[in-house]
Amino acid sequence: MALQNIGASNSDDAFYRYKMPKMVTKVEGRGNGIKTNIVNMVEIAKALARPASYTTKYFGCELGAQSKFDEKTGTSLVNGSHETAKLAGLLENFIKKYVQCYGCGNPETEIIITKSQMLQLKCAACGFVSDVDMRDKLTTFILKNPPESKKGAKDKKALRRAEKERLKEGEAADEELKKLKKEGKKKGSSLKDGPAKASSTKKKANSSDEERMSPTHSQVDEKEEVVDDDDDVQWQTDTSLEAARQRIQEQLSAATADMVMLSTEETEKKARALSKENGSPKVASPAREEKPKAENGSPSTHGTLVNELKLSLRKGVSASQLKSTLSALTGSAQEKMDALFEALFEGVAKGFVKEVAKKKNYLAAAVTQDEGSQLLLLRAIGAFCGKSGSSAMKEVALILKTLYDADVLEEEYIVQWYQEGLKGSNKDSQIWKNAKPVIEWLQNAESETEEE
């Protein structure tokens, strides 16, 4: 079934994760009994997290026709013959009024009925509460048929994990089918080339020893073509002594250079002491003059780590290869995490949350390094938002929500980081005020699951 992004404003976003199936309609009956059946209304309503009776009733109110949704069979009928494009436009209006948050546009909202019989939309992402226009005809139907209470955050997270596992199983099955197809093609090509190979072996047996030792140019070309057509080539790392030395020189960071300088300084002191005893003149070492230094007299470890990670990312390091790249660097775990976050998102001005969603696999690979690595990532986010400017600082709540939905961060570590920040020396920072809606949402979801 074809899928599309929820909301017309997000139709061009290829990375938008909230999707729903495209509407499918069918005209049934004739004359006065003609009706339009929305075939996949149940699937659309599930994607919008709204009862299918709401959308069906909304179509009837807007078109001025009778509408009916059968709970047992799941059929949605609207009297009259209506085009799919017209119903899709009405569904878009329904999404703007009763699904999307009026603040951030996120469709992950919940309908709340207040004590004064008013309808509100509470956003689970930014915490904004939107007031629904009560002049709409559908509001009276919603008040008479209130929505069921949503499940807790932990239950939704378990459902998302089950869906991810099913997708992984499907991808694994697709890869197995591709391998079987490749093996079938190779077997077919080997059967076709069988007679030709048999005749060539006879010719080689009758040829002289000189012809056997020096193959012709056409034979060499055939071998090269066979190697180029093979898709299962395994690339190996050069393990020669010269290549190993070159890699060591490339990975030599500023910290190791400092250690080398310390050892040279010690040897210089010993040489000077011996020269004083022997009465010989002092010899100046050129090593100290040749080494470049930073402005404060010592090279910046953080800047070196950021540059090395940027270089590896430009070379196309995948998320699975990032673990070995980080382990090869020198520095503490917090320094590596700070450098990784800055290398991934430095220079991003707009759409910071979208960039985080694109590169979440790198952060997930870095989090699995050791215990407590989630706190390291949270501290790196806080440090980056504190100095990067207003864009990342304003979107810190959405950043945490995105990484929480992607199973990169867990709620207990997010709350622990927030509490440590309020007690620390930087407790008056704006980042804690901006992150407060997500913390409240996590704590409320936790209390709801405990009550259930």
Mean pLDDT value: 76
Which architecture of the domain at 301-451 would the CATH scheme give at its second level?
Answer: Alpha Horseshoe
The proportion of residues forming helix, as a percent range, comes to 55-70%
β-sheet strand percentage: 5-15%
Major sheet strand order: 3-4-6-5
Shape: flat
Q: In angstroms, what is the radius of gyration?
A: 33 Å
Low-confidence stretches: 207-230, 280-299
Report the CATH C-level class of the domain at 301-451: Mainly Alpha
Series of H and E elements: EEEEHHEEHEEEHHHHHHHHHHHHHHHHHH
> With helices defined by DSSP (H or I, 4 residues minimum), what is the helix count?
21
Terminal-residue CA separation: 35 Å
CATH fold label of the domain at 301-451: Serine Threonine Protein Phosphatase 5, Tetratricopeptide repeat
How many strands?
9
Oligomer: single chain
Largest sheet: 4 strands, antiparallel
Structural class: alpha+beta
Topology at a glance:
Layout: E1 3-5, E2 19-21, E3 25-28, E4 35-38, H1 41-48, H2 52-63, E5 67-69, E6 76-79, H3 84-98, E7 109-113, E8 119-123, E9 129-131, H4 138-144, H5 153-192, H6 194-206, H7 209-213, H8 217-229, H9 241-250, H10 254-278, H11 287-290, H12 301-314, H13 322-328, H14 333-345, H15 352-358, H16 360-367, H17 373-388, H18 390-394, H19 396-405, H20 411-423, H21 430-451
Antiparallel strand pairs: 1-2, 3-4, 4-6, 5-6, 7-8, 8-9
